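User: Design a sequence. Structure:
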C-alpha cells in the first residue's frame, strides 16, 4: 500500500507541474481559443449595437492573466484604442482595497473588526432614532450593515464637487442613521470612507500612501494609484456619458473623490487588477506579494450578510453572488464616465475583469457572459488526464456490509477507489464517501458533498479480530460492526 501511495503522489505532482506549465498558454488551448473568439465577436457586436466607446477585458486563471483585450477606443475623437494597459477610474472597486487594508491591520493586531468605530475615530458622532441600537463597528462598515446613510451630507454625485475629509467630519453630527446596525443591508459610501479614515489613524499613515505602500507596490500594480500622478494622466481613458436619443455622448468631468476616496478613487488597468485577482486565489503566509494570508482571504470571501433571496450577500468588503452552481466574489464600480467590475470564482481559480469608459457600459453583462462562454472550456483544459488506478488487493479485506443502531452501510471498491456508501443520502452517487489511504488499515474520508454532517475529513479505521477478518469499522470516534 505504501508503494502505491508513493506512486500516486509522484503522479499527482507530475500532473500538477504539467497543469501549471499549461496555465500560461491556456488561451492557446483549441477549445479555449475557440470560445475566446466567440466571446470577442459577441463583445464587438454588442458594442457596435450599443454604440459603446471602449472596453478592456481580462481573464485570470490562478496566477496568470491568460487573456486580455481592448475593444473600441479610450479616446473616440483621437481614435486611441482601448488596451489592457488603458487606465480607468475603477470607482467602488476601490472598496476592496480599503477592506484589504483593514484586514491587514486586523491581522497585525492593531484593530478588531468588532471595535466600535468611535474607538478609533473620536469624532464619529451621528444622530440616531434608535436609542437601544448597538454601536457601529468596523465589521458593520465592511459588510454594509451599519445603517449609515449612503452618502456624506453633500450632493457630490450631482455637482461633481466632492467634500474633503474635514468637511465630512464637520457635517457628520448633523446626519442621521437610516437604520440601526445589523437590521438591514444598506450600501454606504460614507461607511467605507470611514473605514479609510480608520486605516489612516491606526496605521499612522495617510490613507493613499498606506494603500500605495502596503497593497499596490507589493502586488506590482505600478499603473494603479489612489491619487492620479501626472505620468498616468495620458493613459487614462476618456469617460463618456450614456448614449442620448440623438446618439451622442457627452464627455464626463473627471472625478476626484477627495474625502470619499476610500470608497471610490482608485485608478487601475486590467493588467494590474489581474494581480489583485490572483491574490484571491492564493494561500499561505504573509510575505512579498502575499499581502494577506490565505485564511484571511477566505474569511473575506465568506458570507457575513445574506440577502433574503439567498442568491446574494456580502463578505468583508466583497459582494458575493450565487450564479447557478458558481459562487462569485468581487465588486462593481461607477463614477462619472466609467463603469467597472471584477469578479472571481476562487473555487475555480478563475476571475474576470471588465472596465468600460461609459455611463451605460454595464460591465456585469459582459462579465457574466464571459464566465458562461469561457469557464467551461477552461475547466476542461486544466482538468488532469484521467488515471486508471488499480486498487490495492488488500482493500478486499474491508469490502462488506456494516451496521450500527442508526444505519446500515457498505464498503466497496468502485472505479479503483475504496468507497463507503452513506445510506442517509437519496442519490447513490451523492452518497459515496471516498476513503483515501492514510496509514495501516486507516483511511480519511473525502467527499464533494456540501452538507455531509461532519463526515468529511474524518478517519476510518478498520479493526481486525483474531481470525484476521475485519470485525468493525471505527469512524468519528464511533463504531460500526461488520455483519457479513
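Assistant: Done.
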Amino acid at each position: 500500500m505504501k508503494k502505491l501511495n508513493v506512486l500516486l503522489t509522484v503522479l499527482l505532482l507530475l500532473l500538477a507541474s504539467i497543469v501549471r506549465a499549461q496555465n500560461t498558454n491556456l488561451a492557446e488551448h483549441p477549445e479555449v481559443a475557440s470560445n475566446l473568439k466567440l466571446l470577442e465577436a459577441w463583445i464587438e457586436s454588442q458594442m457596435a449595437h450599443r454604440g459603446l466607446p471602449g472596453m478592456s477585458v481580462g481573464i485570470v486563471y490562478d496566477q496568470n492573466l491568460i487573456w486580455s483585450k481592448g475593444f473600441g477606443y479610450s479616446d473616440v475623437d483621437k481614435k486611441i484604442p482601448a488596451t489592457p494597459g488603458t487606465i480607468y477610474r475603477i470607482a467602488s472597486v476601490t472598496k476592496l482595497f480599503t477592506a484589504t487594508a483593514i484586514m491587514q491591520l486586523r491581522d497585525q493586531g492593531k484593530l478588531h473588526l468588532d471595535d466600535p468605530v468611535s474607538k478609533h475615530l473620536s469624532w464619529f458622532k451621528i444622530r440616531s432614532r434608535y436609542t437601544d441600537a448597538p454601536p457601529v463597528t468596523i465589521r458593520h462598515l465592511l459588510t454594509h450593515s451599519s445603517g449609515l446613510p449612503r452618502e456624506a451630507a453633500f450632493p457630490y454625485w450631482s455637482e461633481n464637487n466632492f467634500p474633503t475629509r474635514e468637511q465630512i467630519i464637520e457635517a457628520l453630527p448633523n446626519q442621521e442613521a437610516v437604520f440601526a446596525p445589523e437590521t438591514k443591508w444598506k450600501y454606504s459610501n460614507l461607511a467605507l470612507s470611514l473605514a479609510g479614515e480608520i486605516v489612516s489613524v491606526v496605521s499612522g499613515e495617510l490613507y493613499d500612501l498606506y494603500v500605495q505602500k502596503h497593497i499596490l507596490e507589493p502586488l506590482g500594480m505600478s499603473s494603479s494609484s489612489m491619487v492620479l500622478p501626472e505620468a498616468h494622466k495620458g493613459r487614462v481613458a476618456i469617460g463618456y456619458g450614456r448614449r442620448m436619443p440623438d446618439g451622442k455622448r457627452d464627455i464626463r468631468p473627471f472625478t476626484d473623490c477627495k474625502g470619499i476616496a476610500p470608497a471610490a478613487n482608485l485608478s487601475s488597468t486590467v493588467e494590474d487588477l489581474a494581480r489583485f485577482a490572483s491574490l484571491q486565489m492564493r494561500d499561505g503566509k504573509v510575505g512579498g506579494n502575499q499581502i494577506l494570508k490565505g485564511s484571511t482571504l477566505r474569511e473575506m470571501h465568506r458570507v457575513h450578510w445574506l440577502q433574503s433571496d439567498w442568491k446574494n450577500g456580502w463578505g468583508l468588503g466583497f459582494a458575493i453572488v450565487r450564479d447557478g452552481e458558481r459562487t462569485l466574489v468581487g465588486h462593481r464600480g461607477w463614477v462619472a464616465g466609467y463603469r467597472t467590475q471584477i469578479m472571481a470564482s476562487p473555487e475555480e481559480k478563475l476571475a474576470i475583469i471588465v472596465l468600460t469608459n461609459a455611463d451605460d457600459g454595464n460591465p456585469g453583462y459582459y462579465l457574466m457572459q464571459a464566465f458562461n462562454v469561457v469557464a467551461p472550456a477552461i475547466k476542461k483544459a486544466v482538468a488532469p488526464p484521467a488515471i486508471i488506478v488499480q486498487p490495492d488487493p488488500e482493500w478486499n479485506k474491508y469490502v462488506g456490509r456494516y451496521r450500527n443502531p442508526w444505519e446500515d452501510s457498505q464498503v466497496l471498491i468502485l472505479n479503483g477507489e475504496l468507497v463507503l456508501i452513506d445510506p442517509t443520502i437519496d442519490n447513490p452517487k451523492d452518497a459515496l464517501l471516498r476513503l483515501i489511504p492514510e496509514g495501516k488499515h486507516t483511511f480519511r474520508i473525502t467527499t464533494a458533498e456540501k452538507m455531509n454532517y461532519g463526515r468529511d475529513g474524518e478517519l476510518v479505521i478498520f479493526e481486525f479480530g483474531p481470525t484476521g477478518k475485519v470485525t468493525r469499522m471505527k469512524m468519528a470516534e464511533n463504531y460500526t460492526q461488520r455483519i457479513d
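The two ends are 24 Å apart (CA to CA). Confidence is low (pLDDT under 50) at residues 4-22.
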